[in-house]
Protein: Gluconokinase
Amino acid sequence: MVSSQACSDSNSNNYQCQDDDDDDALVIVIMGVSGSGKSTVGSMLAKTKGCSYLDADDFHPHANKEKMSNGIPLSDEDRIPWLETLSDLLRENIVNCKTVILGCSALQKKYREILRVADPSYKSGSYGGRVRFVCLEAPVEVIAARLEKRAEEVNHFMPAKLLQSQLDLFQIENAEGIFMVDATLSPQAIVNNVRDLLFHQSGK
Ligand SMILES: Nc1ncnc2c1ncn2[C@@H]1O[C@H](COP(=O)(O)OP(=O)(O)OP(=O)(O)O)[C@@H](O)[C@H]1O
Ligand SMILES: O=C(O)[C@H](O)[C@@H](O)[C@H](O)[C@H](O)CO
Structure:
């Protein structure tokens, strides 16, 4: 359950994002297909901003990870409870005035909607709320090469062969106001771009 502590609670010294105003807690979701660089960029961005990084992969039930490691794409039935858990967690951060970065595939609008409702004041269809999305975009060849290389270097449950299923599912609408970022750049350049897009524009 989520507490309803007000953001203006002067007794709270739990703010994790040192350069945030307490009224400005944001959730930045770094999204994209497997291998686009969500964990790499998300964790670096969180360090730069001095706030927490959550990796959606850490919240998958064992059964989901086992399915993916066996080369079977997740279904809606697998994803929805997982996204709802993430949404509860994001809401907890928002009501406690904590800015947080989440790395999560969020491949479809209906999945992103579950994350957006973490913002207690979100109204369906209004996309300027506290939950913002940054999509890491790169050509399929670049991502496939990264996944192959990762598989050689580390033991990751997500096999490169599931990339096509992720691309098949991936769907974005202009009206959603998602920030599209060139994910072929170096991780540091991507972090700088995201920071400029999301934080400097709003004077933070
Ligand atoms: N900008 C980049 N340039 C070059 N290599 C990168 C870049 N970003 C990530 N990588 C590398 O690509 C691989 C995939 O990156 P990462 O694990 O961050 O992606 P991901 O989107 O979190 O993947 P998944 O969804 O499967 O967990 C890693 O080996 C990482 O080191
Ligand atoms: O929605 C999904 O299919 C999952 O989130 C996957 O994207 C994996 O969790 C991730 O890519 C593996 O690291």
About this structure: The helical segments are 38-49, 62-69, 76-95, 109-116, 140-153, 163-169, 187-200.
